[in-house]
Structures are given as structure tokens and as C-alpha cells.
Amino acid sequence: AKSTYISLLLPSFYLANFPKNSILAATHSVEFAQRWGRRVRNDIQAERLVLGIEPATDSQAADRWALTSGGEYYGVGAGVGISGYRADFGLIDDPFGSREDAFSELVRKKRWEWYLSDFSARLKPRAKRVIMHTRWHEEDIAGRVEQQIEAGIVKGKVVSIPAIAIEDDLLGRQPGEYLW
Questions:
Q1: Are 90 and 123 in contact (CB under 8 A)?
Q2: Distance, CA of 34 to CA of 139 (rounded, Å)
Q3: Which of 5, 37, 50, 126 is disulfide-compatible with 75, CB 3.0–4.6 A?
């Protein structure tokens, strides 16, 4: 459900509230980026009267499209170059496609370099970002960003919702209760 909320519903909500802004959405592969982009675009089209926005008819690619109001959406696979695009909102959902990738020092290093040099460099000043993914390794993107927050290098807030509830669960579950 986390990807449904973050990769599908949040972009629609954001663009409904900021119809001239641009979103840069990234996930572990180009195929998934196209899948999420298509679903967001189709959701906006289906709910255009409620949301007050609609996709432009001349921009229908699954992973890169625009709204009639001027807002844009660009979905990319983690590790892919993003030159020439600027965004007001950055979203990363599961930048590692597998546990094996997350445990590979080489893949983690490449993803971190991509996050710094490609993804973050494409965000406009004062852009907001959401990074959400399964935590497999302490030196994954979320872990490194968390270290930057703790060191005061970047501003941010960490929201952690474990699959099995602990004391003072954010969702109001009892300790030991499962997310699903």
C-alpha cells in the first residue's frame, strides 16, 4: 500500500494543489516508472472533475506528460540521467529493485551518486522531496539521507512505519500488529 499512497495518490494530490508545478518521480526501473506514470496520468484523467486538473492531449507518454495547466510529470528509473528537467517536487519509491541490489556496495554507490548528481541536481531551490523504500541496508539512499539530517547537512523529517507495530505506532496499531 505504501507505493499506492506515495507513487499514485500523492502525485495526483500534489498536482491538484499545485497545477503549474513539476514532479520528478523515480523508482528502481524504467518499466516501473512508466507503470506509475501511466497510472497517475490515467487517475488524473478519470478524476479530472474532482481534481480540477487534466492531462494535456499533446503529451501522453506513460513516463513524461503535462497538464493543461502547465504542470508536468516525469518518471525515471533510478540511475538514469535526467538532464534538461527541473522539478518542484521529487519522489523516490524503492530505488533498489531487490535485496541483492541493496546489499551490493557497487549498486549502492552508483545509486547514491545518481541521487546526488542527477536526481537532487534536477530539483529547483526549495523543492520538496519524499524518499520511501524498503530498508535493506543502513547505507542505502534513505540511510545516507538520514545521516545527513542528523548531521544538520540537510533539513528533513524521518517517518518510519514498520510492518510490525511498536509502541506509539503512527497508525494507531497495537504493538505486534501487522501492517497488512
A1: yes
A2: 27
A3: 37
